[in-house]
Each structure stands twice: as structure tokens, then as C-alpha cells.
Design brief:
The protein has 13 helices and seven strands. The chain is about 50% helix and about 15% strand. The protein binds guanosine-5'-triphosphate and magnesium ion.
């Protein structure tokens, strides 16, 4: 793919919204393939137009069902939409998560909808770096809306969901009862709350719970609205979409959309620098020369700090 013609073609096909090309590029990005770097770089100036929405919640909270409904709602306005279902716990990849396929297959034949699952292949850091790139591929392919579904089980997933313009946190009745490890983390990143499965008992209590937690968490410029939904019946979906649009207007009105996006880009650059430094560290701290250096440390000829200095040079004082 290194050849110029190949790259030019892939860039043009992505911009034209060619599904096969986008799918192939997402696979390359997901596996960290170096071939994707050139194409992604060439497409970068074409990005920054899509509005991204993260949908996060506990396993089985109804995220896919809600996403499915949001797709239908967005399509009603005639807009195209790209969807990434990120499953950090799944060993599968390339759209192989059956559940997501089954539940979103209503849209499988709609050329205005692109749905894709992404999994880890065993490296979480890789996924955190790959997801923003995949989002930008959909952006470059002309999707004005990009939705990211992710299971809210750990810090990395929270970071992925937080990397969207609007983050929707999905809970169910009874959510307040149990002790959830990352409850505080989810509260912090939520721009919109959804109490889904409102057909079950305890929906009002869950809403009250959230209100109380929000009050305790102090003043904020944007108070996350709490929307009640029954995703399986399509109830509350219009209200959810209105809440997303309201948050978007809020961010656009006071310039914080730009600020948030800039801060995320800074984080991404920092993460890339860290990843490269880690790779360089691995390269430099292995092999016969390194072993010889460690032997000198073990023989008390030099101390570990001096060994590090002999590799890197003297530490820079800030
Ligand atoms: N009663 C009821 N069931 C619902 C509702 N929304 C979703 N479900 C059901 O809950 C189950 C899980 O829904 P999903 O949409 O797959 O949930 P998810 O959060 O995407 O699940 P994972 O991706 O596996 O974490 C399915 O059987 C849905 O039919 C709802 O509002 N009410
Ligand atoms: Mg799902």
C-alpha cells in the first residue's frame, strides 16, 4: 500500500464513502498496521466535521437497542450515520459480534448507515489509539453523525466514551442499589443520562437517585438531563435525541466544543508520544549491549541511575 497510486485511490474511495474501503481501513487501523498511517494522515484535513456521540453503560443496559433507535431517528432527518460498537472484552473483531449485527440489522441494507464492531485483539492501549482514528475515517467518509457504543466496565472504556462530543450514560432501574466500581467515573463523564428499561419497576427511583447524585456533585455549567426510555418500544427516543441536540447547541454556543476537541487532540498526541517512547524503551533495553550494562550494575561497577544515563544521556532539568 506504500505506493502513491494505492494511497491516492484509498483516500479518494474513502471520501466517496465507499463502504468496503472504509471497512478495510478500519481493520488496518484496529490491528495497528503501518499501511494505514499514510492513508489516515492524508485524510486528516478532511476530518473534524462529524458530531460524535458516545453511548456507555453496563453490559446489557440496552446500549445497542438505543443506538439502533438513534440511527432510525437520525435517518428520519436524512442524515447519514456511522456506528462503532467497541467491545473491549470480545476476542472477536471485524463486525463479528453477533449481537450487534442481529440488533442493528434493520439498517444493514441502508447505504446511509455504516455499522462496525471493534475489539481489542488483546491490547487495550491499542484500542484507545485505534478508536479515534476509526471515528475520523467515518468522519472523512462524510458521516455527519458518528455513534460509539462501549461497555462501561473499566477506565479505558470510560476514556473511549469520553472521547465523544456528547457522552450518553445508560443506566437501568435498580442501578442505584448495587455498588458499581466506576459509578463516580460515569457520573463525571455524562452529558446526558438515560434511564432505559423504564418499563421495569424502579425507574422513578433511579431518576431520583441520579438527580441527588448530580446535586451532590456541585455546580456545573451544563446539567446533564435525565431521559427515561423504553428502547425496545422506541419510547423516549425523540426526547433523547433532543437532549443530545441541546447539549450540542450548548457546546457550540460558548465555544467549549472547540476547546474540548482541542483538549482531546492534546491527549491523543500525548498518548502517541508515550506509546512511541515505550516502544523505544523496549528496543533500547534489550539485546547484548543492554545485558552487558546490567552485568556492570550487578557487579556494582555502576549504579542503575548511571546505567540509565549511559543509555539516554544526563537527565534534562525542566
Ligand atoms: N424490558 C426492556 N428490555 C430492554 C429494553 N432495552 C433493551 N432491552 C433488552 O435488554 C437486552 C440487552 O439489550 P442490548 O441493547 O443488547 O444491551 P447492550 O447494552 O447493548 O448490551 P451489551 O452490548 O451486551 O453490553 C436485550 O434483550 C434487549 O431486548 C427496554 O427498554 N426494556
Ligand atoms: Mg451492545
Amino acid at each position: 500500500m506504500g505506493d502513491r497510486v494505492g494511497v491516492t485511490r484509498l483516500v479518494a474511495d474513502t471520501i466517496a464513502g465507499d463502504r468496503g474501503t472504509v471497512a478495510r481501513l478500519i481493520s488496518l487501523v484496529e490491528s495497528g498496521a503501518p499501511e494505514a498511517v499514510e492513508v489516515v494522515a492524508a485524510l486528516y484535513p478532511r476530518t473534524g466535521r462529524a458530531y460524535t456521540v458516545g453511548i456507555i453503560g453496563a453490559p446489557g443496559a440496552g446500549k445497542s437497542t438505543l443506538t439502533d433507535q438513534l440511527i432510525a431517528r437520525i435517518r428520519r432527518d436524512g442524515d447519514e450515520v456511522g456506528v462503532l460498537a467497541v467491545d473491549p472484552t470480545s476476542p472477536f473483531t471485524g463486525g463479528a459480534i453477533l449481537g450487534d449485527r442481529v440488533r442493528m440489522q434493520d439498517h444493514a441494507t441502508d447505504p446511509g448507515v455504516f455499522i462496525r464492531s471493534m475489539a481489542t485483539r488483546g491490547h487495550l492501549g491499542g484500542l484507545a489509539l485505534a478508536v479515534p482514528q476509526a471515528m475520523r475515517l467515518l468522519d472523512a467518509a462524510g458521516k455527519p453523525w458518528v455513534l460509539i457504543e462501549t461497555v462501561g466496565v473499566g477506565q479505558v472504556e470510560v476514556e473511549i466514551a469520553d472521547a465523544a462530543d456528547t457522552t450518553v450514560v445508560v443506566v437501568n432501574p435498580g442501578w442505584g442499589d448495587g455498588v458499581q466500581a466506576n459509578k463516580a467515573g460515569l457520573l463525571e463523564i455524562a452529558d446526558v443520562f438515560v434511564v432505559n428499561k423504564a418499563d421495569r419497576p424502579g425507574g422513578d427511583a433511579a431518576t431520583r437517585d441520579l438527580l441527588q447524585m448530580l446535586e451532590l456533585s456541585g455546580e456545573r455549567a451544563w446539567v446533564p438531563p435525565i431521559v427515561s426510555t423504553i428502547a425496545t418500544e422506541g419510547t423516549g427516543i425523540d426526547e433523547l435525541f433532543e437532549a443530545i441536540l441541546a447539549h450540542r447547541s450548548f457546546l457550540e454556543a460558548d465555544g467549549s466544543l472547540d476547546r474540548r476537541r482541542r483538549a482531546r487532540l492534546a491527549d491523543e498526541v500525548r498518548a502517541l508520544v508515550l506509546a512511541r517512547l515505550a516502544a523505544q524503551t523496549d528496543a533500547v533495553c534489550s539485546g547484548p549491549e543492554f545485558d552487558a550494562l546490567v552485568a556492570r550494575v550487578a557487579d556494582r561497577e555502576i549504579d542503575p541511575a548511571a546505567a540509565a544515563t549511559s543509555i539516554l544521556g544526563p537527565p534534562r532539568t525542566p
